[in-house]
Structure formats: C-alpha cells, structure tokens
Amino acid sequence: MKSDMIYEELIQLDLDVENQEQFFEAVYKILLEKGFVKESFLKAIKEREKNYPTCLNIEPYPIAIPHVDPENIIKPFIFPVRLKNPIKWCEIATSDSWHNVKFIFVLGFLKSNEHIILLQTLLENCQKEETMEKLLNADNAKDYANVILDMEEVSI
Q1: With CB atoms counted within 10 Å of each terminal CB, which end of the chain scores lower, N or C?
Q2: Residue 127 contacts by C-beta under 8 Å, 6 or more apart in sequence?
Q3: Beta-carbon neighbour count of residue 147 at 10 Å?
Q4: What is the mean pLDDT of the chain?
Q5: Of 133, 135, 141, 81, whose CA–CA distance to 105 is shortest?
Q6: How far apart are CA 75 and CA 87, in angstroms?
Q7: Domain 3-149 carries which CATH code?
Q8: pLDDT at residue number 4
Q9: Of the candidates 150, 153, 2, which has an alpha carbon nearest to the alpha carbon of residue 76?
Q10: How far, in Å, CA of 134 to CA of 118, rounded?
Q11: Backbone φ and ψ of 20, nearest 5°
C-alpha cells in the first residue's frame, strides 16, 4: 500500500453522518484545514460522485472509493473512513442501485492515472473477510492504518 499517502490524522473511525452530503462536508472540512485540498474540492467531489458513483458492491461489505480530478488536490492522500452507521451509496456504473456503506476510502491524487493500481488493491483486499474484520474491529487510527498498510499490493 502507498504508505506515503496514509496519514493517521486523516483516519476517521466511527464518523457520525446521516448521508453523503454530510459525509462530503465533514471530509472536506478536515482535508481543507490540513492543507490537502483546494476549496474547489467539495463541489468537485459531489459532482463527480453524482455523475460517476463509486460504491463497489463486494462481499463481505460494500465499500465506496470517491475521488476527484487532480486539479482539486494539493497533497496526495488516502482518507480512510469507518462510519458509525452505514449510509446509502450508489453503485458504480449505475444510477439506481444503492447499498449501505460503512467503509469509505477517499482518494486524492496529483496524476490522473495514479489511482488505477490503488483502486485494484483496495478492491482485492476489501474482499478478504479477515481484512475487513480487522478494519471493523480496529480500536484506533494507528491500528486502522496498520491494517491498510498491510494490504497486499497488486500489479497490473
């Protein structure tokens, strides 16, 4: 996993939001305050998610991997979130298939093609029940980060 993009201060465990709107606003506030994104990020991520949904309906838990174009990013990051309660998220390549999502990985890249291998790595690892149970049961940001950093890389 790209250890240079994981920051413990960005990891949010049991974030309490009721919907995508609240989620994006909470994430934006943190990323802007910490200097990771430009002010254009909030509008860009909402618009991109509306046009290109990012929920992957995988077992054991559906995940979402929202991201925006590089011009909205100052410093590359992976922003891992475990929600307190799942929220509805639209499945990738659909406009009407919604799933309850508890695990979200917001990605920020400076190059437009950088995310392909990382998306594949997250997809493959998040289908492993053992990995997801570790994420579900992590007590703190350090433990959560270690589970992510221990994910097996994929090569395409």
Answers
A1: C
A2: 58, 59, 60
A3: 20
A4: 92
A5: 81
A6: 27
A7: 3.40.930.10
A8: 81
A9: 2
A10: 19
A11: -60, -40
115: pLDDT strictly greater than 50: yes
Terminal Cα distance for the chain, rounded: 14
* Residue reference for tokens 């917001």: 106
Q: Which two tokens stand for residue 98?
A: 């919604």
Average pLDDT rounded to a whole number, residues 43-65: 96
Q: Amino acid letter at 102?
A: K
Q: Which structure tokens are listed for 141? A: 């940001």
Place of tokens 């054991």: 60
- For the cut 60, the answer to whether the pLDDT of residue 124 exceeds it is yes
Tokens for 91?
Answer: 């499945």
- Tell me the average pLDDT across 21-50: 97
Are the C-beta atoms of residues 112 and 74 closer than 8 Å to each other? Answer: no
Beta partners for residue 80, in sequence order: 105
What predicted TM-score, i.e. pTM, was given to this entire model?
A: 0.94
Structure token pair of residue 133 = 């149970």
